[in-house]
Design a protein that fits this description.
The chain is mainly alpha-helical and about 90 residues long. It has one domain. Helix content is about 75%, strand content about 0%.
């Protein structure tokens, strides 16, 4: 199975989210928008698949909400996406 590949993607998402927090709003929007295009990893276990899809859905929701707004105005979506990615890492490691 590709649980390890999914784990690496989750760590990558964490790094990009952290980088976005120290970026300008425009840079952060771009980084989050790029993350929102990630596709789920194929051939993962059911638990990893669910965690990954939840995290990617949270990132997509953050990206959609972030468009045209400031980072401060999407703090709850940002927290939800970060929490979902953390669960994804925990599930896939």
């Amino acid at each position: 199975m590709s649980d390890h590949i999914s784990f690496l993607k989750a760590r990558y998402c964490t790094s990009v989210l952290k980088t976005a927090t120290i970026s300008t709003d425009d840079e952060a929007r771009h980084l989050i928008a790029c993350l929102s295009l990630e596709l789920p990893t194929s051939h993962t276990s059911q638990a990893v698949n669910i965690a990954e899809r939840d995290a990617l859905a949270s990132i997509l929701a953050l990206s959609e909400r972030f468009a045209g707004r400031s980072a401060a105005s999407v703090a709850s979506e940002w927290r939800a996406a970060s929490d979902a990615v953390r669960r994804w890492i925990e599930t896939s490691s």
